[in-house]
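Schema walk-through. Below, the input block comes first and the output block second. Nothing else is stored per chain. Lengths vary across the set, and this one has 254 residues.
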Amino acid sequence: MSFRWLLLGLLLVSHGFADQQADRIAAIHVAAIGGDEALKALTSLRATGDIQIAGQTIAMTMVAQAPNHVWVETRTPGLISTQGYNGKDAPWQCVDHAQTKTVSTMDSLAANEFIADADFYDPLYEAAQRGYTLKAMESLTVGGKTYLRIHVSNANSTPFELWLDPDTYLIVRQVRMRLLPDGREVPIETRFSDFRPVGGVLMAFTISTYADHRKLHETDLASIAPNPPIEPGLFDIPSQPANQDKNSNPFALH
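--- output ---
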């Protein structure tokens, strides 16, 4: 046997081991946050809280439903902004400012990110059945703490890393690369903390987002209600106001 084929065999074995290791970590994680039965029973939620960004506090309400429906409303004095996705049509946004409402679909970049984030389920729950591929990565030590890492990919979204606490097997960070208009790639890091049970499933009540290691905003949730009643049509794009130009987009860059 040539050394070239021996090396190929070792690489194949190592990739297979990485898959098995990722599956093992995922199984322990699912059990740690509540188990299969609790995750299956939780099919929707309603969360309320505040977003801290640029010195402002913004009130937020989110409703999410399996498998990938989401509605988010943020409120500041004189401004209500709503975004939504019904799992099939283009994600949309609605701005109600000074009694003037404007409705539009998101641009392609924002839409792709919104759709990726709309997945209701924990990323390690039934990953293969939902089209995700898991690969174990080398552990990483940051600030004296060592984290387990899993690379997650599928055909429809940008790959990302999950960092897990080796003591609790909770997902404490997600890292995804974003391509900027100037051609640079920067890491977008989401950190999860303050885990509490919601319908038998542990969920993070504090979510902080960093871009290129700089903090952008933090969401502090006051409540998460499991399996709430959901108004029919909530996730669908609202009707366009009669006085709105059908080609207008309030989020377009001028």
